[in-house]
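Backbone-to-sequence.
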């Protein structure tokens, strides 16, 4: 991967995935470039959420910690899917893992929410459009799976912020689809609504 692509990916991550590239600029990049940026971002997100989970445990926010662990698991799956799509497209996936800026749990949730909102409202929708135009089915599948999960992550981060005190108690349990990374608290789910994987393909995170 060219150094410029790594730099863009890191910048996108550090600024919460917002304000770096507008819709036209995402469209101007090739699908392979977009996959490289997404792989770098998801790899860093996994590391970031693992650090945030440790901080939440330290501060006594047990359910928030469970959410961050579930999100980290999901982002790791996205990174692996992106890597596979990159290789299928003839590229080599590389990530530059940045030092995580860990703050208070509330601030960490706010930072995570900002990133997820940018991913679901701008980054992935534009990457999907480009992948469709390029007829890159591997990238399209990977991007769509990530987008569906990011929407759920944003929803749970919003809920955690609104009910922060209640999320101090342990008890929130998440299940993560090991195929596409879809994340939910719906323990009665029989199959993944995104990739149709059976319940047996979900991992419990608490």
């Amino acid at each position: 991967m060219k150094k410029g692509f790594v730099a863009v990916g890191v910048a996108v991550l550090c600024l919460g995935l917002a304000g770096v590239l507008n819709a036209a600029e995402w469209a101007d990049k090739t699908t392979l470039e977009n996959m490289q940026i997404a792989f770098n971002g998801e790899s860093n997100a996994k590391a970031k959420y693992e650090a945030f989970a440790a901080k939440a445990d330290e501060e006594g926010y047990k359910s928030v910690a469970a959410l961050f662990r579930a999100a980290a698991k999901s982002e790791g799956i996205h990174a692996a899917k992106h890597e596979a799509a990159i290789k299928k497209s003839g590229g080599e996936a590389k990530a530059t893992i940045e030092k995580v800026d860990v703050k208070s749990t509330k601030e960490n949730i706010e930072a995570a929410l900002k990133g997820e909102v940018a991913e679901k409202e701008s980054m992935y929708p534009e990457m999907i459009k480009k992948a469709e135009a390029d007829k890159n089915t591997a990238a399209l599948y990977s991007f769509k799976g990530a987008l569906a999960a990011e929407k759920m992550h944003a929803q749970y981060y919003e809920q955690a912020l609104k009910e922060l005190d209640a999320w101090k108690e342990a008890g929130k349990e998440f299940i993560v689809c090991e195929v596409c990374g879809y994340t939910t608290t719906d323990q009665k789910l029989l199959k993944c609504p995104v990739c149709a994987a059976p319940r047996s393909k979900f991992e419990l995170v608490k």
